[in-house]
Amino acid sequence: MGKILILLVWIFSPMVWGLGVMSYNVENFFDAAKSEKADDSTYLPLKSPYKKECKKIRKSYYRKYCEKLDWTQEKVDLKLKQHLKVLSSFPKKLHLLSLIEIENETLVKAFAKNLPLKGYVITTGSDKRGINTALLFDKDLFKFVDHKEWSLSFKTRNLLEVHLETKDKKPFVVFVNHWPSQRSKTPKRLEAANLLKKRMKEILKKKPQTMIVSLGDFNTLDNEFPHPFDGIKEDLKDSSVGSKEGGSYFYKPAMSWNLLDRIFYSSNLLLKKFEVYRPAFTQTVTEYTKKGPFWGSRITGIPKGFDHKKKSKPGYSDHFPVYADFDLKVTVNDK
Fold first, then answer.
1. Which residues pair with 258 in a beta bridge?
2. CA distances from 71 to 28, 31, 47, 91, 227 (A)
3. Cα 12–chain centre separation
4. Is the pLDDT of residue 8 over 70?
5. What's the chain's average pLDDT?
6. Which of 175, 264, 184, 265 is nearest to 220 (CA)?
7. What angle is formed at CA 329 by the lines to CA 134 and CA 195, rounded to 5 degrees?
C-alpha cells in the first residue's frame, strides 16, 4: 500500500512554475498596406493612392505628419527588428506577452515566428485608425480555450479577454487593455474600467478559482478622480505597488514620468518581482527648449521612440516594457 501511495505522489506531483509576464506598447506598429476597415492613411507609402486621405485630417500637426510620412515595407521590417531586439535582450523567459498598438494579425504572426511564444490572439477592434491589442502565450504552459473582445460605447480599442488552461486544467484568464488616452477625460477610462470589472465579476462568479492577469496600457494617471483603478482593485492587485521602478512613459510637455503600463493580478498568483525594463540601448536624452518653467531642463534615460526618418539607430518605442514575475502552482502528470 505504501508503494502505491508513493507512486501516486510521484505521478501527480505539484510543481511551482515561474510565470514571466510582460506588456509592451510597440508604438503605432502598422503594416504598409491599406486597411479596408480603418483610416490608416498615415502609415502608408507616399506612392499609395490612399495618401490623399491625409487631407481630411483636421489638426494641422497630424495632417502634415501624415502627408510627409513614407511608411514602406522596409520601415515595417526595421521596426519589427528593433522590437525583437528589445524582447530578445530580456534575460528571463516570458510566458505571456501583450502587444499594445499593433495593427493586425500579420504583424503579430511575425512576432510569434521569431519568439518562443507561438500561441497568439489579436482583437479586430473598433478603433478609428485600426490599432489593436494582442496576446502571445507559451503553448508549453498554456492551452488555448477561447477568447472574446468587448467594445465601449464609443470607437476605441476593444478589451481583449483570453481564456487559457494551465497544464493541470486550471482556468487562467488574461485581459489585454488599451484604455482611452489622456486626450480623453477620466469618464472614458472609467467606462473601460467598469467593463473590465464587470467581466471579472462574471468570470469569478462561475469559477472563483480562476487565475487572472490584466495588463496593458491603461493611460491612467495617479491624480485622476474618481480613479479608474479603484473598482478593479476589488478583485486584482497592482504588481507595481511598493515598487521603486518609476515610469514607463515620459511626457515631455509636462516633463513628467508616468506609469501608464501596468500588470494587475489575482491573489491566487504569487508576485515575486515587478520591473520596468529599460535596457541602456533603448534610452535617450531630451532637453526642454521652449520658454516656460521647464526651460533648460535635461532629462536622461527616457524611452527612445522609433524615428521613421532614420535608417540606422531609429529607436524602439516611446514606452518601456513592464514585467512581472509570478509563481504558478501546477500539478503535473509525470507518468
1. 249
2. 11, 8, 10, 32, 38
3. 35
4. no
5. 94
6. 184
7. 40
Residue 334: predicted pLDDT: 47
The three grid cell numbers given for residue 274, joined into one nine-digit string: 515587478
In order, the DSSP letters of 159-188 are EEEEEEEETT--EEEEEEEE---TTS-HHH
CA–CA gap between residue 149 and residue 163 (Å, rounded): 11
CB 124 within 8 A of CB 134: no
* Lowest pLDDT segment from 104-113, 123-132, 261-270: 123-132
pLDDT digits (tens, 9 = 90+) for 201-254: 999 999 999 999 999 999 999 999 999 999 999 999 999 999 999 999 999 999
**What whole-number distance in Å separates Cα of residue 257 and Cα of residue 259?**
7
CATH number listed for the domain at residues 15-32+73-333: 3.60.10.10
In the chain, where does the domain assigned CATH 3.60.10.10 lie?
15-32+73-333
